[in-house]
Amino acid sequence: VKRKEVLVEVNKWAEEATQGLIKSVLCEGSFDSSTGVDFKFYLLDGKSIEVPFMTNSEI
């Protein structure tokens, strides 16, 4: 999934889930190479695949 598509999808979900109170939780530039890392994702059959995950060390 492309970054722009994720940004739109997450913001749309947030707006719908909050009945329009929150219009945007992610903005352009929220993603870069420092916010993603590949981790194992375990499938129901016990196998695993490497997939990109978002990370953040700042709170």
What does this structure look like?
It is built from 1 helix and 2 strands. The protein is extended and about 40 Å long. The chain has one domain. The protein has a two-stranded antiparallel sheet. It has 59 residues and is of the alpha+beta class. The two termini are 26 Å apart. The model has no long low-confidence stretch (mean pLDDT 86).
Distance between the termini: 26 Å
For the secondary structure, the number of strands is 2
Rounded mean pLDDT is 86
Instruction: Provide the β-strand percentage band.
Output: 15-25%
Give the helix tally: 1
How do the strands line up in the largest sheet?
Answer: 1-2
Element pattern in H and E: HEE
In a nutshell, what does this entry contain?
The chain is α+β, with helices and mostly antiparallel strands. Helices cover 25% and strands 24% of the residues.
How do the helices and strands line up, and which of them pair or pack?
Layout: H1 3-17, E1 36-42, E2 48-54
Features:
59 residues, alpha+beta, two-stranded antiparallel ribbon, 2 strands, Serpin_sf_1, Serpin_sf
